[in-house]
Amino acid sequence: MFYRTARNDNALNLLDDAAHVVAALPDLTGADIEDFVALCSQQLLASWANTASPPDENNPADVSNGEQPTAPRPDLLCNKTDQLGVLGALEYIISSPLDTDDETAALRNELIDRCLDACQILPSLASEHVGNSWNEDHSLVEKFTHGLISRFIGIAFKFADSRQNIYRSVWTWSTELLSILITSGTRATILEPLSLLFGFLTAFKSSSTQVPPSEISNLNTLLSAILAPPFLKHIRTALKEDRRTERDTSEEPDGGPMVIRVEKAGGDAGVSVVGLGANGRYDALTLVMLAFDAVQHVMGEHFAFGEETDEPSVVAERISADNEEVSTWDKIATRPITSKLGKLDLQRNIGQTYEDCWNSGWRSAVAGWDDSETADGFVNVGAGNGDASGVDALVPAAIRAATYCVLHLGESPDDFVGRVALILTDKGDVPFLEEVRLDLYLTALEALECVARNIATSRPAITEIVLQFLSDPSPLFATFVDDISLNVLRQCASEVLKSCLALQQSSTVTQGCVYALIRSTRGAAGLGGGGLTTGEVVGVENALVQNGIVGLAGIAGVVKSREVRESIIPALTRLSGKTAYDDAVWEALGNVGLVADIDVFRDVVAIVIDEGKHGNRISKISHSLARMSARRPPIFANYYLEKILALFVDRAAALVSGTADSTLLQLLRDLAVIVKIICEQPSFSLPNPLSDELINLFRNFWIYNVLYVLLSNGTWPAEWQSALASISVRTPVLVLGKGEKGRKGRGAVEADVGGNSVLRGKFGEGVMTRIRTILLTLLPHYAVEMLRVRKGGIAPIKGNSNGISVGDTMLKYITEERLAGSDVWNVIEGVGDEVR
User: Fold this and answer.
1) Is residue 341 part of a domain?
2) Fewer beta carbons within 10 angstroms: which end of the chain, N or C?
3) Exposure b/e, 642-653, CB count within 10 A at least 16 = b
4) What is the pTM of this model?
């Protein structure tokens, strides 16, 4: 029923729903609007009605020099009910239609003005008295401010005639908040305005509507004010004041979340976590992060995107799906863009924001370093005795914002590329935390890809930087404990290098990169200098080789097929016998096979098959090739299917002679799983027409499975069941082509099978007897017919019965003229009965 809802309805949700209903009324009148405003807030209604109604000429108080008196400003926001009421009224305005009549539009505009007047008191929420009325739950203050500013941004986007008035008020509030913050000297007095500013910035960061270009300069000015070192030092200092007297006994680091003792509604003492913020706390570090994110989001909304020129970069997949910047950041790396900000004054303002991103002053202020500890440039951000790990986390956000600035300015990005290169070529002087350093490097590489994609003059320099990053690795590679992180970093760098080479389309540059990476796979000499320990030398040596392996696989898709076959594949296979690099080599070979043409794919498959012939294991990449080959043109999957089936039949021959070891069946099961993966891909289909060779491979596959895998009770082992069930659905009719390959009538099937399958070999009579017994169990009413069937027809019958899943397939056997009059015919008829 309507009163049972899936979400947790609160007062604001109900007001929002009511706002949408009222706004959708077909014949909306001023009385309808007044009724809804009364539902939201009686004080707001009184304030609005004072200005919406004409003055009473008989009342001298209503007339003053022929002018309508100004309504008193309603102090609404100190009352939680009225706070929600204002949000509900704003939701109605957002939902109201554009094509209203003049009277309704005038009422709407007046309501906007009244809501703006009501919110003039917003900065006074920063007082300690109001803070206590909120029970010191600063997260509620932040959420309210976020809801308020978000709605005003939406209204400004929808109604151009109110835009200037709304943003004038919004920026006035932000200025007042900054003034209150700079004059608040203790933690008790600064948390309230700080939570308000958090909500303000979060509204811009998560805005679903575009902020107009004319307001970007104001937001960038706010960023500059927040990044001012004196302001951040004041925030950090004030948050430390009286901390010991307010906090719980737990020892949190400076700037961490506070735990305040409050009284719950029932009177019991409880614990309330104060300062949720963006990362769980209210402090200078999180404030800077929010400011960068807000600027990045707003500037990202003013790019015009062209057609996608490449597959989305794999590096973007690491970003959380709930990150607001995923789509824009990823699209910049895969599509040509143009900036929609063309005014000179806006470009000047963005230029200042770009400088702010690289300024070392705000990093020093956030970390609490003395001026003597300040180091210029991000490379030395970890110097000093401050909170380096926290500041390091801000650097990726600053790089992303700087990237957006560069793309909007559209000028030569030499300065930007040089600064990012300093990060990637760092030789280990920075004590970054591992997870921070990984995010930093990934963001730097992503930024270079974005710039290379959209500014052609930057591509040669960026190509050289990324190549150096892989072929001359920093000693920091040796300090990574997590191999997964290292692999992500290598994959990211190789993707960026591939993009740069694809964009430049220079065979000379591409060939130079191939040779440089091949040299990397051979290791390097002379790494012992620079104070490296023996262990670090080995670590860098391993990093160099593995960087070369991943790099070669990454760029194979943009290298000519001949060079892949003559240079890249041999360079990789030379390392396949080395245990330390074995997994990396096989993964790289798989990636090469999947991105190159069919000739390269055949070479890689040949290597995989050769490995399967000489050992009882199948490489990990075999499964990847099975999944991905079906996404390429059909020739890839069909070729791979044929080779895997042939390998299965070749290795299963050892079962007949009895020379198989205990691991052979495991290998055969792995091969069956690979066939299953190919067959299960939605885009896979068998070639049409089918070749006799492929049909024979399927038939021999099923013959070996029936003879040596099938259990005595006529069922498949549990570990084989899933694979064989999937393969059976894709198995073609197991009868070879007509013509000279067989005769009709009695003996036709036996002749076909005997001459064109593994059954022409020698099988023990015990095997045939076991199969007859199994078939009699499955088809007990056909015992007489079963005894007449000779060896050539026994195993195919069971294989056929397993492969048949629909009547249509059964009809293909029944209509096969060579089966008519044969000894198998009546048994096939019995199988048909089972299908029905």
Assistant:
1) no
2) N
3) bbbbbbbbebbe
4) 0.75
